[in-house]
Amino acid sequence: MHIPLSSKSEQMNVALHYCIRLLIILLFFTGTCTNGAAESQVEAIFTSTLPVAGWKLEGKSYRYIPQNLYEYINGAAEFFIAYGFIELTGANYFSASGERDSVTIDIYDMGDKLNAFGVFQSRRDTQASSLNIGAASVGSDDYISLYKDRFYVEIQAYIIINKDNSVVKNLASIVAKHLPGDSSLPKELSYLPEKGRIAGSERYIRGGILGHAFLDRGIVCDYQIEGQKVSAFVAFLLSYKDAVKAMEQHRIFLNKSKKNCLSLKGFEKNSFVSEEPFHKKIIVTQKGPFVIGVYDLVTTETGKKLLLDILKNIEQPSSKQIFQ
């Protein structure tokens, strides 16, 4: 008499088990293939698109991830990681003529456009000339930094023998052209009104606006209003409740600093005006998961119009899908 090894229900469970395992494997490889495609596209810049005539790739391209980035840039690693760093792909090139001239190209994948913008603005040399490469770029004959989409790029040249002022710019243009993504600005910058904005002062802060941990991240910008230079910020919180909590923490900080917090008329009930240590008057309000403020004010009225304009931009239907 034949004795079955398993019941029909057990066979179905086994089949279901293998189906689930197969689905997980397929999902894994789908994600791997997607990431691999982006990675190979960046690596191809070094192996296929570059080098330019007169230059040779030294060895192979190199790669670093958050766990070992400190091996390459030591103390600066924490800065990049704080901005969402995913990986660095880079390579060294040397002169084909056998001279000591060399160029190093480092491409940082920062995960998204806002992170790449934040790194670029934080590290840019304000004295360097602006260039028309990628979304934004600055540099000289020996060094260029730029960003495009989610990528931040640094190109450093050590050219002693064959002086050629066009080498670094040509390399930067080629890299930017072949990087995935587009050269548009982060959509979050649309919260900041254009009128009165001081060009180039826009920045994305990670680690505390005005040094406050409860305002961990957000965009900041400087304005020229009625002959006064003031600054505005939009802090991104995870939820409405987190934003309300941040407002309360801000009040507590100011009270401990012996600064009075008064109600800001014409805005939400938890809005206030006070004096921020080292930053003159400050007015702060809250909208959904955002905390918005204007500081370095001589008078409160000077900042109210700017605060209202920021709120209008945040309330635009096209802006509601920006913040995740």
Strand content: 25-35%
Mean pLDDT: 86
- What fraction, in percent, of the residue positions are helical? 25-40%
Low-confidence stretches: 1-12, 22-35
Radius of gyration: 26 Å
The gross shape turns out to be elongated
CATH superfamily of the largest domain: PknH-like extracellular domain
CATH C-level category of the largest domain: Alpha Beta
CATH topology of the largest domain: Protein Transport Mog1p, Chain A
What structural class do the secondary elements suggest?
A: alpha+beta
Instruction: Give the helix tally.
Output: 7
Spell out the helices and strands N to C. HEEHHEEHEEEEHEEEHEEEEH
How many individual domains?
A: 2
Largest sheet: 8 strands, antiparallel
CATH architecture grouping of the largest domain: 3-Layer(aba) Sandwich
Counted beta strands? 15
Measured between the Cα atoms of the first and last residue, the distance is 64 Å
Describe the structure.
- The protein has 324 residues and is an alpha+beta fold.
- The protein folds into 2 domains: 37-178, Protein Transport Mog1p, Chain A; 187-319, TM1622-like (Protein Transport Mog1p, Chain A, 3-Layer(aba) Sandwich).
- Helices cover 33% and strands 27% of the residues.
- Strands 1, 2, 3, 4, 5, 6, 7 and 8 form an 8-stranded antiparallel sheet that branches. A 7-stranded antiparallel sheet has the order 9-10-11-15-14-13-12, with helices on both faces.
- The protein starts with 7 loop residues before the first helix and ends in a 9-residue tail after the last helix.
